[in-house]
Amino acid sequence: MDASFVLRAMFGTKAAYLDGRLHLCFCANEEPWRGVLVCTERAHHASLQTEFPSLVSHPILGKWLYLSEERDDFQPTARRLVALVRRRDPRFGIVPQPKKRRKSAAPSQRMKHGFAP
Questions:
Q1: Is residue 106 part of a domain?
Q2: What's the CA gap between 51 and 102, in Å, rounded?
Q3: Rounded to two decimals, what is the model's pTM?
Q4: CB-based burial label for 50 (10 Å; 0-12, 13-18, 19+)
Q5: Does some domain include residue 103?
């Protein structure tokens, strides 16, 4: 296994990171959340869709491509996608946005809820 590989839960999916970049999300819910989300920049969509005709723009997250589990070619296409990610194909992966820090409650809200400043 690659030392930089990380699998994390993200919005009901399993997100695969490699070298700190988000590459694929594996979804097991109802359509359109049942398959593989391909995390890529829009500039790479045409190239990937030419190579993988089963990939479509996700109907909700249009910035990413989607391979539905319902496709007849799901298994071989998913395997090829994973192989390209493992070979560090530059069309795959995005730098995840840093997590936003939660602001603490305003002083009046802290007092309202019994918290002393």
A1: no
A2: 41
A3: 0.80
A4: exposed
A5: no
